[in-house]
Amino acid sequence: MARALIVIDVQNDFCPGGALAVAEGDAIVPGINAVMTEYDAVILTQDWHPAGHSSFATTHDGQHPFDVVTMPYGPQVLWPDHCIQGSPGANFHPDLTVDRADMIIRKGYNPAIDSYSAFFENDHVTPTGLEGYLRTRGITDLTMVGLATDFCVNFSAVDAAKLGFKVRVLSELCRGIDLDGSLAAALEQMAGAGVEMA
Questions:
Q1: Which of 9, 26, 81, 150 is catalytic?
Q2: Is 152 known to be catalytic?
Q3: What is the pLDDT of residues 126-184, one digit of tens each?
Q4: What do you get for the CA distance between the two ends of the chain, in Å?
Q5: Would residue 9 show up in a list of annotated catalytic residues for this protein?
Q6: What is the value of pTM for the model shown?
Q7: What residues pair up with 6 in beta bridges, in sequence order?
Q8: Active-site residue, 107 included
C-alpha cells in the first residue's frame, strides 16, 4: 500500500504575521519537513484566491471578517483577504521543503466559491483532481498535516475518508483557528468519519 503525506496550506498568510495567521502556524514546519521522507508521495495544497474572492469580507458590503453568510452552496465564513494569487502571502512558508513535493494542488481559485478541502470545492461536488491523482498512483493511505486543523485539514480529512482512503491526521503537525468552538467540532467530525488522530 502506497502512502502519501498531504501538507495543507502551509503558507505565509496562515503563519504569524500573515493576513489570516494561525497561532504557531510556523512552528509545525520543521516537523513536517522531517517526516516527508517517510512517504511514497508528498502533495502540497495551496490556497490560491483571485483578488475580490467571494469569501473575502471586503467583497460584501456591511460584513466583517469571521461573519457567516449564506452562499448558493451553503454557509460561508467571510475571511480577511488572504492568499491572493501571486502575492507574498500566498507563497509557501520559506522554510517548507517545497522541492520534496510530487504535486501541488491549488484551490480556491474560482472567484464564486471557496475551497477548504484538498478534494472538493465547498459545494462538495466540484473536484480538485487530487482523488484521481492518488488513485492512478495506487495511493491508499493518507497522512495529513498543516493549517488549519478545524477548516482545511478537517474538510480534507473527512472528504478523503468518505472517498475510501485510510486517513490519519498528525495533530502535533497541525494548528487550528478555533473560531467559536470550530476546533472541537472538527475533531468530532473527523472522528465520526473514521479519521485516525495521531
A1: 9
A2: yes
A3: 999 999 999 999 999 999 999 999 999 999 999 999 999 999 999 999 999 998 899 99
A4: 19
A5: yes
A6: 0.96
A7: 43, 144
A8: yes
